[in-house]
Automatic annotation (TrEMBL):
Belongs to the class-I fumarase family. Residues 289-489 form the Fe-S hydro-lyase tartrate dehydratase beta-type catalytic domain. It comes from the Bacteria. This is Fumarate hydratase class I. It comes from Candidatus Endobugula sertula. Residues 13-285 form the Fe-S hydro-lyase tartrate dehydratase alpha-type catalytic domain. Signal peptide: none annotated. PANTHER family: L(+)-TARTRATE DEHYDRATASE SUBUNIT BETA (PTHR43351), L(+)-TARTRATE DEHYDRATASE SUBUNIT BETA-RELATED (PTHR43351:SF2). Its EC number is 4.2.1.2. Its cofactor is [4Fe-4S] cluster. One of its GO terms (biological process) is generation of precursor metabolites and energy.
């Protein structure tokens, strides 16, 4: 018997699923973060997870994006052989029309991050299309669809290797994870694909991330195959690295490790690793011909009630009056609450500014003694000053840092994750400072922004230079004026504590 799937039903289901995952974390993820939060002993890491949990509840209540990076859409479609589509669009176009409507939804506008001609003009498509779509034709009379929205920061940390057959997958992962830094916004999930060919291993790793978090169940029952053995071993050993939430050092780096494998050529052992971040977003639905498959909202009773406190190292900072002398007193790991005027700028703005400085041209805004926030916010809706506005990965600005500090008088930067060696040297040389906001707490951060206006490069859209007026925006000192980085010292300290048995990751 043939099942008829209407074009409009598929489009509506894609649209609904993407709106849903933009503001609802999977419940298993929230429960796993909460368990990690309760046992965490590093105050900085614990506060980072508190912000993630608070942000998650706020987004669920307010129906606004968990992260300003609302992701590149990935869709896995299993089409039953007895299905007939009723409509005038190819299946790919139906899916992309659902993406287009979701990202343009007037009540919850999502950020368009997809650029056409990626090594050329890099022009934004304006509606986050096209999606990356994977098809399987399977027995049956239904269409089964998994939808995910993958952030660029975590996707950028994807790794692949073609190992020798005798090489250890576990050893490879343990060597690779520390090189990933904190740009993937741990704690999160590692998806690992083993076998097949190069492209098959990557696909397996991405598919693995769609599975529910169940590492504790696996620990209780024990491994029944090699993939489960690897999961258990890596879950333990990666957490023993002490990387911790946001790379600040701590007891939980991964919430689960997922492994999928596939038969391989005798000469090869392809292995891929793809992390999922603190904005884990995916869902699943099935079309059976009865109409659109719409998501069911979860009950907010399942979200923990978390509050943030201050500690002895918390400082109030007025960005309008802060001095070099004041900045000299800040230490890695200190918590700051920023108030005052904060500039913004990320990749495209930095490249344009450095090009202008090279030509001897004047910048659109004076940066002497000021701070810049690496962010590309979501467009505001209703009475919002700005949409979700969490930090982007700071290492992408490293190659611009020395020029910016030398030629603009910039005093400090705010971003996500660690800085590279060249940027740290420039920060040290100019007695500047680098601060981190929590990746995965974009809506929470946006509530600290009480004013916003574009002050340069308006044509760059979300990458324009804004001037934010902020009130008590929470950040952590990551690199101080002496060049000491918390992303180096924090994991070292907590790895030693774990190895010496001073603390337990269980």
């Amino acid at each position: 018997m043939t099942t008829v799937i209407k074009q409009d039903d598929l489009i509506a289901s894609i649209e609904d699923s993407l709106q849903f995952i933009s503001y609802y974390h999977p419940l298993d993820f929230i429960q796993a973060v909460y368990q990690a939060y309760k046992k965490e002993q590093n105050p900085a890491a614990k506060d980072a997870m508190a912000q993630i949990l608070i942000n998650s509840r706020m987004c669920a209540e307010g129906h606004r994006p968990l992260c300003q990076d609302t992701g590149i859409v990935t869709v896995f479609v299993n089409v039953g052989m007895n299905v007939h589509f009723e409509g005038n669009m190819p299946l790919e176009d139906m899916i992309n029309e659902g993406v287009r409507r979701a990202y343009k939804h007037p009540d919850n506008v999502l950020r368009a991050s997809i650029l056409a001609d990626p090594d050329g003009a890099r022009k934004n498509t304006g509606d986050n299309t096209p999606a990356v779509i994977n098809y399987n034709i399977v027995p049956g009379d239904k269409v089964d669809i998994h939808v995910a929205a993958k952030g660029g920061g975590s996707e950028a940390k994807s790794k692949f290797a073609m190992l020798n057959p005798s090489d250890s997958v576990v050893d490879w992962v343990l060597n690779v994870v520390p090189t990933m830094g904190a740009g993937w916004c741990p704690p999160g999930i590692l998806g690992i694909g083993i076998g097949g060919t190069a492209e098959k291993a990557m696909l397996l790793a991405k598919e693995a991330l769609l599975e529910p978090i169940n590492i504790q169940e696996l620990q209780s029952k024990g491994a029944e195959n090699r993939a489960e053995e690897i999961r258990l071993e890596l879950y333990d050993k990666v957490n023993r690295l002490g990387i911790g939430a946001q790379g600040l050092g701590g007891l939980t780096t991964v919430l689960d490790v997922k492994v999928k494998d596939f038969p391989s050529h005798a000469a090869n052992k392809a292995v891929a690793l793809i992390p999922n971040c603190a904005a884990t977003r995916h869902t699943h639905f099935t079309l059976d011909g009865s109409g659109p498959a719409l998501q069911r909202p979860p009950t907010l009773e399942n979200w923990p009630q978390i509050t943030r406190g201050t500690n002895a190292n918390t400082r109030q900072v007025n960005l309008d009056t802060v001095t070099k002398e004041e900045v000299l007193e800040w230490k890695p790991g200190d918590t700051l609450l920023l108030s005052g005027k904060l500039l913004t700028g990320r990749d495209a703005a930095h490249k344009r500014m450095v090009d202008m400085l090279t030509r001897g041209e004047e910048l659109p805004v004076d940066m002497q003694g000021r701070f810049i926030y690496y962010v590309g916010p979501v467009d505001p809706v209703r009475d919002e000053v700005v949409g979700p506005a969490g930090p982007t990965t700071a290492t992408r600005m490293d190659k611009f840092t020395r020029t910016m500090l030398e030629q603009t008088g910039l005093l400090g930067m705010v971003g996500k994750a660690e800085r590279g060696g060249a940027a740290i040297e420039a920060i040290k040389d100019h007695k500047s400072v680098y601060l981190v906001a929590v990746g995965g707490a974009a809506y929470l951060v946006s509530k600290a922004i009480i004013g916003a206006k574009v002050v340069g490069f308006e044509d760059l859209g979300m990458e324009a230079i804004y001037e934010f007026e902020v009130k008590d925006m929470p950040v952590t000192v990551a690199v101080d004026t002496k060049g000491e980085s918390v992303h180096k010292t924090g994991p070292e300290i907590w790895r030693s504590k774990i190895e010496e048995g001073v603390v337990s990751i269980q």
